[in-house]
Specification:
The chain is α/β, with parallel strands linked by helices. The protein has one domain. It is about 45% helix and about 20% strand. The chain starts with a strand and ends in a 6-residue tail after the last helix.
């Protein structure tokens, strides 16, 4: 098996955001747990907020995880721009 991973959902909006606080220390630790304790080498990141999506993805990539981005419908307009920005920042040519 080449990839072992999970879906990381950072909060859907259903009348309210069930995960309204945004703390990168918590995000980093949760991704660290996925990698080091659950032995994942990949993560699919889902959510509406494309800025959060990119920050989560950057942290996951820096920790050596393979990343799949799954923006939800409200974030699709910014998806391509954000992905290009992330690829440039991380200097990755094979993200997709």
């Amino acid at each position: 098996m080449k990839f072992k991973g999970v879906t990381y959902d950072f909060g859907y909006v259903m009348d309210e955001n069930w995960r309204p606080s945004f703390d990168m220390k918590v995000v980093h630790r949760e991704l660290e747990i996925l990698k080091n304790y659950l032995y994942c080498n990949a993560v699919r990141i889902c959510g509406f907020d494309t800025d959060r999506l990119m920050k989560y993805a950057e942290d996951a990539l820096e920790q050596g995880l393979h990343v799949w981005l799954s923006p939800n419908s409200s974030g699709l307009l910014w998806y391509n721009y954000s992905l290009l920005r992330l690829r440039k920042k991380m200097a990755l040519k094979d993200l997709l």
